C-alpha cells in the first residue's frame, strides 16, 4: 500500500532529513495536511525536525496486536520535538529502562513481525 | 421545542456470548425496549443504531437495515460510528430529531459482538479508533493509549496506581447486584495492583473486559407520551458533543480531555444546569484512568484532584457523587457500539427507582452520562432528569 505524504515523510526521516509542517502561529503537525489542525491556517510549510526529542510519556506493551507479536514486550512513547510530538517504538534500550525525559532521535526501523518500515525513537 | 422522554429501555446481558450474532443481540434489546415502552411499533419512525467494529468482527457492513428487520420494524435505519461513542452519537441524533419535530418516536441504541475474536484481533480492531498512520503503525493499542495518558497524568498531577485501583474496586462493587453486568465479583486493591500488566502502567484489572451486548431505547416527544398515556418519568434534557484531534500526540495536554469539557458545557447549557446540580453520573471508564479524566472533564473536580475521589469515598455508592453505579464499562462490560445506550438505560433505571442500586440515590433528580470515543477525540454527554 502506498500512502502519499506519509511515505515521503518516513523516507525523509530515514534519510536524516526529518521534517514537520509548521504554520505561522508556531503549530507543528505531520503530513499529509492541507490546513494546520490547531488553527486552520493554510500557510503551512516544511520545517526541519529537531534531531533530538524528549520522551514525554511511554508505555511498555505486553499485549500487542498481531502486527507486533514478535516485538512484545516493547515500549511505545510520545516524544516532544518542540513544535511537534511523535509516537514511536523505543529502540536502543530495554523497555524497562525507558524513562520520562529520556532523549531520543527519530529514525526508521523494521517491524519485526511484518517487515514493514516502523517509526522508532532511538535512545541517544 | 419539545422535550424528549425515555419511554422504554432494553438491554441484553453484557458478557461473553461468542456464539451469539450481533443481529440476535440487538434484536433482543430492541424488542425489550419496545415492550417496556408500550409504543405501537408502527409509530416508530426511524432507528439510530451504533456499531463500531462489526465490519471486522462479523464481516457485516450495512448493518442498520438488518437491525431494523431484527427489531421487527420497517422504518428507515442508519448506523452511526464514532468508535466507543457510537451509541452516544446515535442517541444524540435521535434526541435532535425528536426535538426538531421531525420525529415523535425513535428507537436508538447499539450493539457490539467482540468475544468471537481472538485477543490479538480484538486488540487490532479496537486500535482502529486511533490514527492508523502515526499511532497504530507505531504499536499503539487501546490499553497502550490510556497507559500513555495515565503516565502523563502522574507526571503532571501526581497520584498513583493505588488511587486508580480504588476505581476498579468501586465499580466491581457496584456491578454486584446488576443482573446485566459481566462481572459479579468483588475485587481488592491488592488484586488490582498485582494483576498482570497489559500495557504498563495499565494492568489487567485496570481495563474493561471484552464484551458482547446490545442496548436500545425508545425515545418519544412529550406530546406523544401525554397523548398515549405513557409511563415515562425520565427525560433527556441536555445533549452535547465535543471533538478533538484524533492522535493523542496532537493534543495540547496528554492528560486533559477538552472534547469532554466541550460536550459537558453544551449539555449543561442545554439543560440549564451546572456540574454542581448533578446527583449521579455514568462515565466512560474503559480504563481506570479514563474515569478520572472524565470526572475532571465534566467539571466535578479540578485537574489533578479527581484521582483520589474513589479512594476518599466521594464517588462510591454511598459518596456525595456516585460514579458508575451500573458497574461502569469496567465491571458491567464494554460492548463498544452498545455502551452509550447502556449508560442511558442504566441511568434511566437508576432515576426511575427500578435499578438494584437505586436505593443509593433515591432523592436524585439529575444524572449525567458521558460516552467517549478513542482517546476522547469524541465525547457525548447527556443530562437526564426525572419527574418527582
Q: What's this model, at a glance?
A:
The complex is a heterodimer of chains A (124) and B (388). Chain A has one helix at residues 6-14; strands spanning 19-22, 28-29, 45-48, 53-61, 74-80, 85-91, 103-110, 117-123.
Calculate the mean pLDDT score of chain A and round it. 97
* Overall number of structural domains of chain B: 2
Share of helix of chain A, binned = under 10%
The total of beta strands of chain B comes to 11
Query: How much helix, percentage-wise, in residues of chain B?
Result: 25-40%
**Largest chain interface and its two residue counts?**
A-B, 34 and 36 residues
Shape call of chain B: globular
Helix and strand string of chain B, N-terminal first?
EHEHHEHEHHHHEEEHEHEHHHEE
> How many separate helices of chain A?
1
What name does CATH use for the topology of the largest domain in chain B?
Answer: Peroxisomal Thiolase, Chain A, domain 1
Structural class of chain A: mainly beta
| Neighbour order of strands in the largest sheet of chain B | 3-2-4-7-1-8-11-10-9
Tell me the structural class of chain B: alpha/beta
The proportion of strand residues of chain B reads 15-25%
Q: Give the averaged pLDDT of chain B, no decimals.
A: 98
**Oligomer designation:** heterodimer
Amino acid at each position: 500500500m502506498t500512502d502519499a505524504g506519509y511515505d515521503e515523510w518516513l523516507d525523509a526521516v530515514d534519510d536524516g532529513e526529518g521534517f514537520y509542517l509548521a504554520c505561522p502561529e508556531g503549530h507543528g503537525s505531520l503530513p499529509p495536511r492541507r490546513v494546520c489542525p490547531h488553527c486552520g491556517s493554510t500557510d503551512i510549510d516544511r520545517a526541519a525536525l529537531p534531531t533530538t526529542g524528549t520522551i514525554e510519556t511511554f508505555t511498555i506493551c505486553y499485549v500487542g496486536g498481531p502486527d507486533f507479536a514478535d516485538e512484545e514486550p516493547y515500549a511505545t512513547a510520545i516524544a516532544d520535538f518542540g513544535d511537534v510530538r511523535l509516537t514511536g517504538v523505543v529502540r536502543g534500550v530495554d523497555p524497562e529502562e525507558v524513562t520520562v525525559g529520556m532523549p531520543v532521535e527519530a529514525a526508521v526501523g523494521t517491524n519485526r513481525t511484518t517487515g514493514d518500515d516502523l517509526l522508532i525513537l532511538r535512545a541517544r | 421545542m419539545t422535550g424528549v422522554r425515555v419511554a422504554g429501555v432494553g438491554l441484553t446481558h453484557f458478557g461473553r456470548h461468542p456464539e451469539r450474532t450481533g443481529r440476535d443481540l440487538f434484536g433482543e434489546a430492541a424488542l425489550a425496549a419496545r415492550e417496556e415502552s408500550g409504543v405501537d411499533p408502527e409509530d416508530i419512525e426511524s432507528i439510530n443504531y451504533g456499531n463500531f467494529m462489526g465490519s471486522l468482527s462479523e464481516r457485516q457492513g450495512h448493518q442498520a437495515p438488518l437491525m431494523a428487520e431484527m427489531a421487527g420494524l420497517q422504518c428507515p435505519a442508519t448506523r452511526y460510528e464514532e468508535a466507543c461513542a457510537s451509541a452516544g452519537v446515535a442517541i444524540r441524533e435521535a434526541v435532535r430529531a425528536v426535538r426538531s419535530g421531525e420525529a415523535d418516536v425513535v428507537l436508538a441504541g447499539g450493539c457490539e459482538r467482540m468475544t468471537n475474536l481472538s485477543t490479538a484481533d480484538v486488540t487490532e480492531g479496537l486500535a482502529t479508533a486511533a490514527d492508523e498512520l502515526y499511532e497504530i503503525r507505531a504499536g499503539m493499542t487501546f490499553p497502550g493509549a490510556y497507559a500513555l495518558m495515565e503516565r502523563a497524568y502522574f507526571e503532571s498531577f501526581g497520584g498513583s496506581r493505588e488511587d486508580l485501583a480504588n476505581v476498579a474496586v468501586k465499580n466491581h462493587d457496584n456491578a454486584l447486584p446488576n443482573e446485566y453486568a459481566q462481572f459479579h465479583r468483588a475485587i481488592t486493591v491488592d488484586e488490582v495492583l498485582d494483576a498482570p500488566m497489559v500495557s504498563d502502567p495499565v494492568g489487567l484489572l485496570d481495563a474493561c473486559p471484552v464484551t458482547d451486548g446490545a442496548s436500545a431505547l425508545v425515545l418519544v416527544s412529550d406530546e406523544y407520551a401525554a397523548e398515549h398515556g405513557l409511563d415515562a418519568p425520565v427525560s433527556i434534557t441536555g445533549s452535547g458533543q465535543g471533538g478533538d484531534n484524533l492522535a493523542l500526540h496532537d493534543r495540547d495536554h496528554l492528560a486533559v480531555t477538552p472534547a469532554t469539557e466541550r460536550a459537558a458545557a453544551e449539555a449543561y447549557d442545554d439543560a440549564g444546569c451546572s456540574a454542581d446540580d448533578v446527583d449521579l453520573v455514568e462515565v466512560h471508564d474503559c480504563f481506570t484512568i479514563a474515569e478520572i479524566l472524565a470526572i475532571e472533564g465534566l467539571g466535578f473536580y479540578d485537574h489533578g484532584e479527581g484521582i483520589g475521589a474513589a479512594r476518599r469515598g466521594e464517588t462510591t455508592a454511598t459518596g456525595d457523587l456516585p460514579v458508575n453505579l451500573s458497574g461502569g464499562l469496567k465491571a458491567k462490560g464494554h460492548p463498544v457500539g452498545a455502551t452509550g445506550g447502556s449508560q442511558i438505560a442504566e441511568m434511566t433505571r437508576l432515576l426511575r427507582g427500578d435499578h438494584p442500586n437505586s436505593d443509593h440515590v433515591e432523592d436524585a433528580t439529575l444524572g449525567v452520562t458521558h460516552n467517549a470515543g478513542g482517546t476522547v477525540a469524541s465525547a457525548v454527554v447527556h443530562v437526564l432528569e426525572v419527574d418527582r
